[in-house]
Amino acid sequence: MSTNRNVLRPAILLAITLSVLLIVARSREATPKQVTSPAANQPAPASSTSPDPNLTREIDRLIDESGLPQARWGVVVKSLADGQLLYSRDGHKLFTPASNMKIYTTAVALDLLGADYRWRTSVYAGQQVDPSGTLDGDLILYGRGAPDLDSFKKDGLPALAAQLKEQGLRRVRGNIIGDESYFRGELFGFGWQWNDLQWYFGAEPSALSVDQNSIALKITPATKPGIAPALTLDHEGDYLRLTNNTMTVASGEATTIGINRGLSDSELRVWGDFPAGGRPFSAYLSVPNPALWAATLFKQALAARGIKVEGEPRSRDFRMPEKDKFDPQKAVETAHLESETLGEIVHRTNKESNNLYAELILRTLGKERGATAPDPDPRKNRERGDDEAGLAVIKLWLSQHQISTEGLGLRDGCGLSRLDLVTPDATASLLEAIAKTNSATTFHDSLPVAGRDGTLSARLHREAGRIYAKTGSLTYDHSLSGYATTENGQVLVFAIFCNDATAKADPVRVIDQIAALLTAAGAAQPAKTRE
Predict the structure, then answer these.
(1) For the chain, what is the mean pLDDT?
(2) Separation CA 287–CA 214 (nearest Å)
């Protein structure tokens, strides 16, 4: 979505409704390469050296004095040059990674699909347009997982509509069908919490996704009490049925705005008080049934170019009966778009910690490479979702790079799931492994840069430009994994996880202190006790 979503947080902080407050805590958040496959699930060889005693002492001190006595910490630090283990604290234990899960998804996808991979979105018709410009049948908008399809930009849905008009289409006597059947799988990530699903970061992954499957709601208080604030959506129409139960109250009174979109319907309810003179704010919500949403927006784009559609928007997914499934090979492609490259999409995924992008990358990985990692039970392969297949491909990649997958719980591609479980050692080893591939630079540059951009733009200012790392944050769980360059030019790979941080102390501050410590010139010196 082209609108800046950073306005969501200050807006939601104004609200005292419990559901809104809970969500804010979470929102902080080609050709395959041929590799030699060792025996599956074999751990990487243990380092022959001992951890750096100076680094061990300093990191232990930061954790022990953190004011988080009940939190679980997992930290691994290695030298990228030679794999020397410099520090490990519960490196082989399991932790919830939050958005550090995106490291797994994006790194493996880049290596297997290539940075130049693109998605194709097509428009199909069952027959040719007649000489009068009429299509006597349905027009199918067919998605293959493009994360960046947009209805606002001229090179998005408007470009498809323009192609059709240039070809002479003037009337569609059938329906506009949004077809998302390219992907199989569950509607949401396994283990996503229900109260995440109404917000943009819990948007439903769909092979036909438009505007990141989200919509912006702007709330503007009246100039005087007793009048309802104005509620406006950034898309016209009635796809979401808006109920306004808000009221403008006297200046200085508390803001008590609550927002709820039904989990299985298009009802959007807004209630509570907003003080007069308050600043307008926007909240970003997911939309139900993304394929139907895409068809609705496409019909609007066609109408804007003078193409009349007599039918209605409809949707179709892989659950359709076999006789009703759409086969692109038996239809006429009348228009198409190519997405940005995977390299560009990964850049945005990691910099912005975009959950939907990560989920679509995961499903694409499963669709394109799932056959290389079949389920041990052949009967399950036919019905296996592309999300499951993508996770199987990730595990296979880890094993092929001598990274142990024993005990790992990979449940989604973005880290929103509370059921994801990884180890600091596996995460650091993955960062080592991807650094030795042709995708090393693309992946490295996709990570947020300390003090400069992405989700690290407001953190680690003193270490600006010397830490490239992926952030992660769920309620009580935080992470930071990536690369740190010391003052003497050595590059370290690190993974820092803090789970169960229920105390008042700030775990992110401690994580940043550990990361900052790594940039010290002596951090990567060989340990005195090394054999």
Answers:
(1) 90
(2) 5
Question: Average pLDDT for residues 398-405, to the nearest whole number?
Answer: 97
**pTM surpassing 0.85?**
yes
DSSP string, 399-416: HHTT---TT-B---SSS-
Please list, in sequence order, all residues whose beta carbon lies within 8 angstroms of the beta carbon of residue 463, skipping any fewer than 6 positions away: 450, 451, 484, 515, 516, 519
Contact 99, 454 (CB under 8 A): no
Query: Which residues have CB under 8 Å from 308's CB, separation 6+?
Result: 170, 171, 172
Whether 355 and 414 have beta carbons less than 8 Å apart is answered as: yes
pLDDT classification of 93: cutoffs 50, 70, 90: very high
Say how far apart CA 141 and CA 313 lie, in whole Å: 10
* Structure token pair of residue 288: 């139900």
The CA-CA-CA angle for residues 520, 526, 529, to 5°, reads 125
Query: What does the alpha-carbon distance between residue 489 and residue 506 come to, in Å, rounded to a whole number?
Result: 30
d(CA 286, CA 23): 13
User: CA separation (Å) from 233 to 149, 184, 240, 285, 509?
Assistant: 19, 31, 9, 10, 37
CA atoms in the 13 A half-sphere facing the CB of 5: 22
3-class SS string, 307-336: CEECCCEEEECCCCCHHHCCCHHHCEEEEE
184 Cβ partners below 8 Å, 6+ apart? 318, 383, 384, 385, 386
Residues 6+ apart with CB under 8 A from 261: 198, 240, 267, 268, 269, 285, 286, 288
How far apart CA 244 and CA 262 sit, in angstroms, is 15
Strand-pairing partners, residue 479, are: 472, 497
Backbone phi, psi, residue 145, to 5°: 100, 10
**Which pairing describes strands 85-89 and 134-135: parallel, antiparallel, or unpaired?**
unpaired
Q: Which residues pair with 74 in a beta bridge?
A: 497
Per-residue pLDDT, averaged over 385-404, amounts to 98
The Cα–Cα gap between 426 and 114 comes to: 22
Are 401 and 454 in contact by the 8 Å Cβ rule? The answer is: no
Residue 16 sits at the vertex; the CA angle it makes with 11 and 20, to the nearest 5 degrees, is 65
DSSP secondary structure letters along 21-87: HHHHHHH----PPP----STTPPPPPPSSPPPHHHHHHHHHHHHTSS-TT-EEEEEEEETTT--EEE
